[in-house]
């Protein structure tokens, strides 16, 4: 056990003072305060203990996978222009639904990891730029939520 601890402790940063640039910048006898600034944060300064450090990234994945997949399935007649699972946005191009004569495009925003109506927002537009009726948007949202629930039941995670 002690040998393992000694080996792990040697995995830290190399703190030798070989007279290189870091040794010059860290000297306390340098008269110019700008030259005595310590350089940190390089990619080679990582240790084994960084695995246990908290993640400082600004991006957190908070998308419900069932709503995400259901959105892609329900709107499969629309060509996908861009998807961003990190922000929960799906942007489609114009397409005509089966049996319909009007061309639509949609933007889907999945904003919560829960499987409920608050997690989903759909915005639709026709090719002429006119707004789509709220009843049509609600019907698309309901179809996505229904399909998401079916996917969850099929997955067996109730």
TrEMBL record:
Superkingdom: Bacteria
Organism name: Shimia gijangensis
One Pfam family named in its UniProt record: DUF3576
Protein's name in the database: DUF3576 domain-containing protein
């Amino acid at each position: 056990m002690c040998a393992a601890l000694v080996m792990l402790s040697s995995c830290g940063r190399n703190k030798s003072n070989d007279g290189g640039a870091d040794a010059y910048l860290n000297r306390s006898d340098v008269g110019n305060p700008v030259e005595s600034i310590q350089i940190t944060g390089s990619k080679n300064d990582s240790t084994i203990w960084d695995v246990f450090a908290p993640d400082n990234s600004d991006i957190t994945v908070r998308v419900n996978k069932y709503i995400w997949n259901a959105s892609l399935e329900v709107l499969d007649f629309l060509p996908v222009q861009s998807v961003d699972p990190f922000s929960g946005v799906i942007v489609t191009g114009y397409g005509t639904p089966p049996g319909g004569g009007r061309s639509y495009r949609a933007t889907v925003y999945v904003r919560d990891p829960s499987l409920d109506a608050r997690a989903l927002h759909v915005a639709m537009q026709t090719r002429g730029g006119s707004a789509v009726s709220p009843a049509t948007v609600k019907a698309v949202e309901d179809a996505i939520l229904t399909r998401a629930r079916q996917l969850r039941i099929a997955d067996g995670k109730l």
